[in-house]
Amino acid sequence: xSATDELMAQAARYLANxxxxxxxxxxxxxGVRVWxxxxxTYLDFAAGIAVDVLGHCHPKVVEAIRAQxxxxxxxxxxxxxxxxxxxxxxxxxxxxxxxxxFCNSGAEANEAAIKLxxxxxxxxxxxxxxxxxxxxDSFHGRTMATVTATGQPKYSQGFEPLLPGFKHIPxxxxxxxxxxxxxxxxxxxVEPIQGEGGVRIPDDGYLPGxxxxxxxxxxxxxxxxxxxxxxxxxxxxxxxxxSIQPDVMTLAKGLGGGLPIGAMxxxxxxxxxxxxxxxxxxxGGNPFVTTVALxxxxxxxxARLSDRAAKIGAYFLERLRQLATRYPFVKEARGRGLMLxxxxxxxxxxxxxxxxxxxxLILIAGDQVLRFVPPLIIGxxxxxxxxxxxxxxxAEEPR
Length: 399
Fold this sequence. Notes:
Layout: H1 3-14, E1 26-30, E2 33-36, E3 41-44, H2 47-50, H3 59-69, H4 82-94, E4 99-103, H5 106-124, E5 131-135, H6 144-149, H7 153-156, E6 166-169, H8 174-180, E7 185-190, H9 206-217, E8 220-224, E9 248-251, E10 262-266, H10 268-271, H11 287-302, H12 305-324, E11 330-336, E12 339-344, H13 349-357, E13 360-361, E14 363-364, E15 369-372, H14 380-394
Parallel strand pairs: 3-13, 5-6, 5-7, 7-8, 8-9
Antiparallel strand pairs: 1-2, 2-3, 4-10, 9-10, 11-12, 12-15, 14-15
C-alpha cells in the first residue's frame, strides 16, 4: 500500500465524512507548487481555496511564524494585543476607516456581521427591523446563520428548520432588491463577485445601484469579501472596482496567508453597536495569527500584488478565452484578476480529476464550472503551463 493509500484509509477511519477528498496527500509546498507523499509535483491553482495568496512557505511568512512562535502565541482578548491593534489599523486605513472585529474564519466573520446588523437596527430603530436580504447562488459559510444566508439549498438541506429573518433574491438584479427591501430590512449581504456560485461578476451598475438603494432606505450594505479580498481580483478589495464603500465588510481566506483568521470591518457608527459582552471570540486575533496576517498584508502592499493579479489575471483570462474557442462545450471564460472560471456544458469534476493526474490542482464552482484561484505570485510561465495541461485535458472530452 502506498503512503497516500495508507493516509486515505486512515482518513476514512478516523475523520468525519464531510469532504469528498481527492486521492492525493500533499506533504510539502514551496511557491506555487506542492508535493504529495510519493514525491509527485503539482502546480497549485487552487491555493487552499483562494487562501495561499503568497504561495506556499513564503520566506517572510515563515520568518514571521518563527519569530512570533518564540515570543507569544496566545493571550485573551481581555488584554490589549499589540499586533492585533497594528493589523486593525492597517486594515482600517487601507479600506474605509472602520473598526475591526477579529475571529477565525469567513463564516465567523459573516456571523459577526449578521449579529452586528441586527443589533445596530434594534438600537437605532426596533427589534422588528431584523431581516437580511441575501442573494441566490451566494455562499457565506457553514454555521446555522451563514448557511441560512447562503442562497444555495444544497448547503442547507437536512439542517432545517433554518433561522428566520433571511430573504433571498436574484443576484445582479437591482429591481429585485428594490422590491425586497422593506420596513423589516436591516441589511443587504452580497458578494461583490460570487465565488462558489460560479465566479459571477455583476453588471457595472449593480453594486453602485445597490449602494445608493441601501443609503436611501437606511439599510446596511454588507459585502462578503472573504474570497474576493486581499488583492484577489486586482484591487486590494473588490468593492474598489466599483468606486463604492460598504457599511460592513468581511474578510478571511487570503488574510492569513494559510493561517486561520477572519475579520469584520464596520463603519464606526455601525461598529459601536457592539459593546463589551455583546460579541466575542476566544482565539480571534491572537498575537500569533495577527502577526502573520500583518506580514501577509504588508507583502501584498509592498510587492504590489494586487497590480500583479490584475496584469497576470488579464493574461490568464485571454489564454482561457483562446482555449474556449477550440472546444464547443466551453460556454464562457470569465473572471476578474486571479479569480477566474470556465463555464462548461459538461460535468466539471472529471476534468478536475484528470488535471490532477497531470499535476495541476484546480477547483469547481458548481457542477459545470472550473475555478482558478492561484497564488498572487504566479507569472505568465505558470499560466502557460496550466493552459497546456487544460488543453490536453479538454481535448479528451467528447465533442
